[in-house]
Design brief:
60s Ribosomal Protein L30, Chain: A, alpha+beta
Length: 739
């Protein structure tokens, strides 16, 4: 059936999908399709134009093709969370499809020395499927012909012979009983006859003894009467006759083996009598006689279930059982023999298993998510194809093209320029430290700064610690310290101005004692500002509890008479005023220290460049997608590359917080666009994306490699905007070239 396949050159192939499919697959085609068209219509140097529909060529002529299409075999695919999407189209021409076979397509991924088989695509012809079904039906009939052991009794039991064996056993039991019964009846018949004879003999003995007794008794009486008549002595006459009587009867009865013929003790006599009695019993009855068996003592044998089982287990059609069990042991062998094309049981190996008509081409879009190992830059894809016909012939098609997928990860956005840390060192610096001061309410004490009152010492220690750090540091030299004292709005505006002046002097006097090694008098300068309205306005904006904040801000901004303004707020918005007094006023009563200093030995501002070898190793690990190893190093340098590594690890929130605190660049804005897209902040994502294009137009070319960005451009119709930015950049480039 596969003969026609040898006469053609068609094959199943794989190609990269078009852009529309590509948008769904998180990958980007690298020059997938390039079309060359001939601009002229006339031949050159003897060339002949190829006409539409022309199917015969002059082999001696040179033809000019109107169009040549070249398809690329590679694409970029985005790596996210250690996985990529591999997508492609399987194209099967109709010439290699038939109802009489199936086509098995096996895509395979190649990377390094590994070959990973993807799920198969199986295209079945209708006739092939019918053949499969028929084979399985035949095999099912074979399986149904095998009798389970639990059904042996109902199918293989030899019931006729079992019935005959049971009948034979029952007859045997009956014959035993019949024999015992006949023997018992014969014995009892003999016994009855014997008892009658014994009774007759006993009667004869008694009759004889009685007759003799009375005979001798008469003789004794007669003799006694005669002696009495003759006056003779009668003594002993009766005894004499009785003695004769006994001798006479004993002699007569001895012939019947009576006990009178035995000389011995009583026990011996009884034993002798039993022996003599047994000798009179026929030999065949002696056992019955000795056991004194009765009819009731005869036991009949009963045919039981045990007898039935014993007989049945040896009455099967064993020849048929042997054949049946042989068939059962050959089930697997028979399956291979009867089912030439078994169904694939492991469905996890199959992506598609379908029936297709043979009259048209087949195209299937295949996408596969695949984990990538660290450091892997590229994987390749190919496909094997095999045809299996119903006559068991097979044909292996030519292998498909090999497609390449270049892995585009966010790690490629790493900024290697940060390996060298560029630090701008300013000569002149300042440090502003706020110390909240507390004063007693008594009029005489409200001007004096007492270090042990409330939390004054803890607040002042913050400044003193910083001051001592700078004064003892060889890197810095303090030029001056400006002490700025402010207060809250309570009291008269003019009085408060004077109040801050006196409080500033009080604080300075304390510092003279606290810093004996410093020239506080000349080093510290005093400024007093009175009421701090600027801080008041700033704190009101931040406080959500103030309901009428806009009205209060307007009143403070437009105030002409400060004291009257405060009084108006207190009357019109008493609840808000209480919040201001309790929460904000304490923040206005403070001393701000502005420390002006310069770097020792530095004449002017300069730039310091520091090469970081460990940071370079972190970047290398990041680019090789060894993210966990990279973050161990980069975590010590919270910059753009650290945020990029966090993004690759999936820590989007941490990366977002880090990036928002960095100076905006094309890199940071582009990465923020990706993060905001992941975090469902699409408006912010669009803003960051467009800003990244403005700061670094080269990011436009990167966009196609990142699915988050392509999705934003497509969803928010940004392509025209992107094109304008790119056009402006091209115009700038042309202007520079002209110059």
């Amino acid at each position: 059936m596969t003969q026609n396949l040898f006469m053609q050159t068609k094959r199943a192939n794989i190609v990269l999908p078009d852009d529309q499919m590509n948008n769904k697959s998180k990958s980007s085609i690298a020059s997938e399709r390039v079309t060359f068209r001939n601009s002229g219509s006339s031949g050159i140097n003897g060339e002949v134009a190829l006409k539409d529909g022309q199917n015969k060529l002059d082999t001696s002529a040179v033809y000019r093709l109107p169009e040549v299409e070249v398809k690329a075999q590679g694409r970029f695919t985005a790596e996210r969370d250690g996985r990529i999407n591999v997508d492609f189209k399987i194209i099967v021409p109709k010439e290699i499809l038939s109802d009489n076979w199936r086509l098995v397509l096996n895509p395979k991924l190649l990377h390094n020395d590994s070959v990973v088989s993807l799920q198969k695509v199986i295209l079945n012809g209708r006739g092939f499927v019918d053949k499969q079904k028929q084979d399985y039906d035949d095999y099912d009939k074979f399986l149904k012909s095998i009798v389970d052991k639990s059904q042996y009794d109902s199918i293989y039991l030899d019931r006729d012979n079992i019935s005959r064996d049971i009948r034979k056993r029952q007859e045997y039991y009956f014959n035993i009983y019949k024999k015992d019964m006949k023997e018992q009846m014969d014995y009892e018949k003999w016994k009855t006859k014997r008892e009658e004879e014994d009774a007759y003999m006993d009667a004869m003995k008694i009759r004889y003894k009685t007759e003799q007794y009375h005979r001798y008794a008469r003789k004794a009486i007669d003799h006694t009467v005669r002696n009495m008549v003759e006056n003779k002595d009668t003594t002993g006459l009766h005894a004499k006759y009785m003695k004769d009587y006994e001798r006479k009867t004993k002699k007569h009865i001895s012939r019947y083996l009576d006990d009178f013929s035995f000389h011995g003790d009583k026990d011996s006599l009884e034993s002798f009598k039993k022996e003599m009695e047994l000798m009179r019993v026929p030999k065949k009855y002696r056992e019955l006689y000795e056991t004194n068996r009765q009819i009731a003592d005869i036991n009949n044998h009963v045919f039981t279930l045990k007898d039935s089982i014993e007989i049945s287990k040896h009455r099967y059609f064993f020849d048929e059982i042997v054949l049946n069990e042989l068939a059962a042991t050959r089930k697997d062998e028979m399956f291979e023999k009867m089912v030439k094309f078994p169904y694939i049981e492991n469905k996890a190996e199959i992506r598609l298993d379908t029936i297709i008509p043979s009259g048209s081409n087949f195209v299937f879009y295949y996408t596969q998510e695949y984990p990538v190992v660290e450091g892997l830059k590229k994987i390749r894809l190919t496909m094997d194809s095999k045809i299996q016909a119903i006559d068991r012939s097979e044909y292996k098609l030519q292998g498909a093209d090999t497609l390449s997928y270049f892995i585009a990860s966010l790690a490629q956005l790493a900024d290697v320029s940060l390996i060298s840390k560029r630090t701008e060192l300013h000569r002149n610096l300042y440090d502003r430290i706020s110390v909240y001061t507390r004063y007693k309410t008594a009029k005489s004490a409200m001007l004096v700064y007492e270090i042990d009152y409330q939390d004054n010492r803890a607040n002042m220690d913050k400044f003193l610690d910083s001051y001592r750090k700078y004064i003892n540091s060889p890197e810095f030299t303090i030029d001056s310290v400006t002490l700025i004292v402010t207060t809250s709005l309570e009291g008269d505006y003019e009085d408060n101005y004077e109040l801050t002046s006196k409080r500033a002097l009080s604080v300075k006097n304390y510092l003279k004692g606290a810093l004996p090694d410093s020239d506080v008098e000349s080093l510290f300068k005093i400024k007093h500002k009175g009421e701090d309205w600027n801080t008041l306005l700033a704190q009101i904006r931040k406080t959500d509890d103030i309901v009428n904040k806009e009205d209060i801000q307007t009143m403070l901004t437009n105030a002409v008479y400060p004291d009257q303004c405060e009084e108006d707020i207190k009357k019109q918005f008493p609840a808000d005023y209480r919040i201001m007094k309790d929460s904000i006023y304490p923040l206005l009563r403070r001393a701000d220290f502005v420390i002006d200093l310069h770097r020792t030995g530095l004449v002017s501002d300069t730039v310091k460049i520091e090469y970081r070898s460990d940071y370079e190793e972190g970047i290398r690990l990041l680019q090789d997608r060894e993210y966990w190893k990279a973050i161990e190093i980069l975590a010590n340098y919270p910059d753009y590359n650290t945020a990029l590594c966090l993004v690759c690890l999936g820590y989007n929130s941490k990366a977002y917080d880090l990036l928002t605190n960095l100076t905006p660049t094309g890199n940071t804005e582009y990465l923020l666009a990706i993060l905001c897209s992941r975090m469902q902040k699409e408006r912010e994502a669009v803003s960051h994306l467009l800003k990244s294009y403005e700061l670094d137009p080269s990011k436009i070319y990167r966009s196609k490699l990142d699915p988050e960005v392509t999705a934003l451009i497509r969803k928010h119709n940004l392509q025209s905007h992107v094109d304008r930015i790119l056009e402006k950049e091209n115009q700038k480039t042309e202007t520079i070239d002209i110059k």
